[in-house]
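Attaching the record inline, Q. Sequence:
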Amino acid sequence: MKTFLIGLLCGIIISLGVVWFFTSGRQILEVEKAEERAAAQVDQARELVQKAADRAKETLMAKLEVLELRSEQIQKEVAEKGKIVRRKARDLGETVVDAAKDASLTAIIKAKLAADPDLSALNISVSTTAGRVTLSGTVSSFEEMGKAIALALETEGVKEVVSTLQVK
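Structure, as predicted:
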């Protein structure tokens, strides 16, 4: 009887060991497959984000070209006139914008400047009167000046942007 019980216990222990061995192997394979799928999805997401960033950069560069806000153009205009002025053609006929709208435009532009990692919203002052936005303060380069002007111009309700930004 004693031999039988010892044999039974040994059989149970061996059976549990075999079951554990085969089930743990499957779990490891499933985890590895899940990790591979996750890595593939991360790579795919990274590619999509890169493509979107490239398209956004191309769009911004095209806007800067159309609005004559390339670095060389800004530098030349600042040297000649001391400021940058750009108007939206479709909004020239409108003249009345209330103070609440102006305050809203200022807040939206400041938020855009703060969200842009290349620009410092603390160094750029924004004021708006009747849809005319004035940017003043300092930026690090003419490229940043162009970007700040473009961000302001692309805001709905802005009729004109005047920049007295200085490059430091």
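The longest strand covers residues 132-139. The chain has a mean pLDDT of 83.

More tomorrow.
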